Amino acid sequence: MWILLTLYILLTSDPMVISSFAEAEELDSWYIVDDGVMGGLSQGYLNHTAQGYATYSGDISLDNNGGFSSIRKTIRGQDISGYTYAILKVNGDGKKYQFRIKSSRRDYHSYVYDFQTTEGWEEIVIPLTEMKPQFRGRRLGIPKYDATTLSEIAILIGNKKVESFSLKIQEIILK
To answer: What pTM did the predictor assign?
Structure first.
């Protein structure tokens, strides 16, 4: 029954486009935050392709207590009441990433959902109310995301190992 309800919602609701990389100008609304804010040496890059998607790639280093890279977009307190899922259209590299949301600019924590990529185009469907609060990798004892307000989205890689990564992103929508 849950699967049928999910399919019904995904097929019938109008999407809210959070980010579409069809045009290069979309990159202007994103910024990179690497572990260099804490002294680390990881490097992430975000580039647009002529095929109409962005490539988020780089190298993760554990030197100087490093270990993560992220891309972020500020949304400015968008009301998302009525939306149930975030859908990421991506082409991955077989690595695990995190989709992260902040409901308010004042929040020190993010709501996090881990997702595993494959090496091909796919839609990652994330139930918004299953996103769990975290701060610096630690789970917090507060409620899960209530999916009413959106102030920031991010994609982060931080698998506690040295690695190169490459994630192609076509679109991020809410349904």
So the answer is: 0.90
